[in-house]
Design brief:
It is a single chain. Strand 10 and strand 11 form a beta hairpin. The protein has three helices and twelve strands. It starts with a helix and ends with a helix.
């Protein structure tokens, strides 16, 4: 009887571990290091902030990491962009979202752009930061200019088994 209880406990523990390894995780990685591994039970809001390399004004992008995005494989949706001046690479077309002004900022809401993964780079003076529910990562302080930062949604086993 005792052996059966032990085997049952082991089987339950193994099933829970297998289930946990299949759960999606929001990953931030660079140079072979994992900077952030945030479990995704549901959508997770985050933002990326930087100083535009040409305009030299702040830009903030508001996104969600979604475990069901991109055919169930996980990914990202850009919901909103906020910036202070028009310039290269910034949204300006009417079809890209709902445009309005908030004080000294231009804002595009309801953008709904989908990305399977995101690749960012630190730059000279760009002050690239990532803010999640856990806090803010000042990526520009952690890595030299030109460093690639990869954001993805993956299953836990993909992270811990590599």
């Amino acid at each position: 009887m005792k052996t059966r209880k032990v085997l049952t406990a082991v089987a339950v523990a193994m099933a829970l571990l297998a289930w946990q390894m299949l759960q999606p995780i929001f990953l931030v990685q660079s140079e072979g290091r994992t900077l952030l591994a945030l479990p995704l039970c549901r959508e997770q809001a985050f933002s990326i902030r930087f100083i535009h390399s040409v305009q030299k004004t702040p830009v903030e992008e508001f996104l969600v990491a979604d475990p069901a995005e991109c055919d169930g494989a996980g990914g990202f949706r850009l919901l909103r962009t906020r910036y202070q001046s028009f310039g290269v690479g910034l949204p300006f077309m009417e079809g890209e979202g709902d445009f309005h002004e908030e004080g000294e900022y231009f804002v595009f809401d309801h953008m709904d752009r989908h990305f399977p993964r995101l690749a960012l780079r630190t730059g000279v003076g760009t002050q690239l930061t990532l803010t999640t529910a856990l806090g803010t990562l000042c990526l520009y302080e952690l890595f030299p200019p030109g460093t690639r930062i990869d954001l993805s949604v993956a299953r836990a086993y993909e992270v811990f088994c590599h």
